[in-house]
Specification:
Layout lengths: L37 H11 L1 H4 L6 E5 L5 H18 L4 E7 L6 H12 L11 H15 L1 E8 L9 H5 L12 E9 L10 H7 L2 E5 L4 H15 L9 H12 L3 H17 L7 H23 L2 H15 L7 H15 L6 H13 L3 E7 L6 E7 L3 H9 L2 H4 L6 H11 L3 H6 L2
Parallel strand pairs: 1-4, 1-5, 2-3, 3-4
Antiparallel strand pairs: 6-7
Helix pairs in contact: 1-3, 4-5, 8-9, 8-10, 9-10, 10-11, 11-15, 12-13, 12-14, 12-15
Length: about 425
């Protein structure tokens, strides 16, 4: 049937019988209730109790993998903290910076200055001393306690200036009427270990670890969101348990579980089904896995981590290569030259390999050196190399790092990993 005089049938689906609302699936959505994080909320409150008590602005670091509720819990705890401080007549100001977008002290200072002086515009190129002076002037005028929340603080890398200067600003006379504490949120459990001793001594921070959600916790979270997003009776009874189980086995990431549930609903909607079934979840898992890998590479890895991953990927698909630390580091240095990037030490590259393993992009197997004694590790990719190569190709700068033989290496690698049965079936 032709519609709207366009000469063809509309490609859009008819009435929506699957979803009630999709707003809760969006990343910026903060639920009214933070589920399955009661213990962490209590730890958080204890770490910040000095503020409503009027004893000072402490430094708190929050660690945990992606999707375990660190940011949402922080937002909710800060809401309670602001209310408590108000009731206690304690002056409190909170400033939040996403370091994923602002990856240096300078960019964070520029952002804070613009937040504190909305009528002005501090352009790129403003001298750092000017930014520091204006920020300190504004904070002293506001007075009281100031909490600077640095989300994804590990994106600052080895740039430690903020962590050293803010907590000691009052002690060294930069501030008279205000005291600054830092709340750092990080996906990298080793972030603190990589800080210099002077920063560790200055921070004296309290640490809170967020563990991955287990299957029961994910079922609770998914049920809460399902009631907000799906129409009554749409989900078959095995959808939420299966979604929770698959995600718990993989990562314990609630964000991934919600993406999986939403994608399963989208598939059912696209296919014209009135119910979301187990099969929809299994199809969705493949799609979400690919999308999640791309998101981690493009959004959560620093440029140096990307180069380490690229070097590892090329060695994995090279039949003559061996993805050991020494060979990864050697190829990494060559890639840095090709894309005109700074070269890190081998020790830092080892740290990045650990981070890539934490993100679920790499895994390492122990390799016995035999009569020579000792052991080494061989790294392999968790996902298909083609997904990683295609993702890097979307970045013009990184694409320059690939050798001309990369497509041929990929094809040969994929052929070599096909079983005899697959070859017979032409899979």
């Amino acid at each position: 049937m032709e519609r709207n005089g366009l000469g063809m049938d509309s490609p859009f689906k008819g009435s929506n019988h699957v979803f009630r609302d999709k707003e809760p699936f969006k990343e910026g959505y903060t639920p009214d209730e933070i589920l399955e994080r009661g213990e962490e909320i209590q730890e958080y409150a204890a770490a910040l109790q000095d503020i409503p008590d009027g004893f000072g602005a402490p430094n708190v670091f929050i660690y945990g993998q992606t999707g375990v509720g660190k940011t949402a819990t922080t937002q909710k705890v800060i809401e309670f903290l602001e209310a408590e401080a108000d009731d206690a007549d304690v002056a409190l100001t909170t400033l939040t910076v996403n370091c994923n977008k602002r990856t240096s002290t300078y960019k964070v200072l520029q952002y804070l200055a613009n937040e504190l002086y909305p009528e002005e515009h501090f352009k790129q190129g403003t001298h750092p001393d000017t930014l520091w002076d204006r920020i300190y002037d504004a904070l002293d005028e506001i007075g009281g306690y100031v909490i600077v929340i640095l989300d994804e603080i590990d994106k600052l890398g080895e740039d430690e200036e903020l962590l050293y200067d803010f907590p000691r600003a009052k002690a060294i006379g930069e501030l008279e009427n205000a005291e600054v504490g830092i709340v750092g949120i990080s996906n990298n459990f080793k972030f603190r270990e990589n800080l210099s001793q002077r920063v560790k001594s200055t921070l004296c921070e309290k640490e809170i670890q967020f563990s991955p959600y287990d299957a029961n916790e994910l079922r609770s979270i998914l049920s809460y969101y399902a009631d907000l997003t799906f129409r009554d009776g749409v989900l078959s009874e095995d959808v939420i348990p299966l979604t929770a189980a698959l995600t718990a086995q993989d990562s314990g990431d609630a964000r991934m579980a919600l993406d999986l549930l939403e994608t399963a609903g989208d598939i059912a909607r696209h296919e014209g089904d009135t119910r979301v079934l187990e099969d929809h979840v299994r199809i969705a898992r493949s799609e979400v896995d690919r999308a999640n890998t791309r998101d981690i590479i493009t959004e959560r890895l620093t440029s140096q981590m990307q180069l380490v991953l690229m070097a590892t990927t090329l060695l994995v698909i090279d039949p003559d290569g061996e993805a050991k630390v020494k060979t990864i580091y050697s190829l990494y240095k060559d890639l840095c030259d090709r894309v005109d990037a700074d070269t890190l030490s081998e020790s830092r590259v080892r740290d990045h390999l650990d981070t890539l393993e934490m993100f679920g992009l790499l895994e390492k197997g122990e390799h016995n050196l035999g009569r020579r004694g000792g052991r080494s590790y061989i790294y392999s990719l968790v996902d298909e190399p083609r997904i990683i190569v295609e993702t890097f190709r979307e970045d013009e700068r990184l694409e320059q790092g690939f050798p001309s033989s990369v497509d041929s290496l990929l094809g040969s690698f994929e052929d070599s990993t096909r079983s005899h049965v697959q070859s017979e079936f032409s899979v």
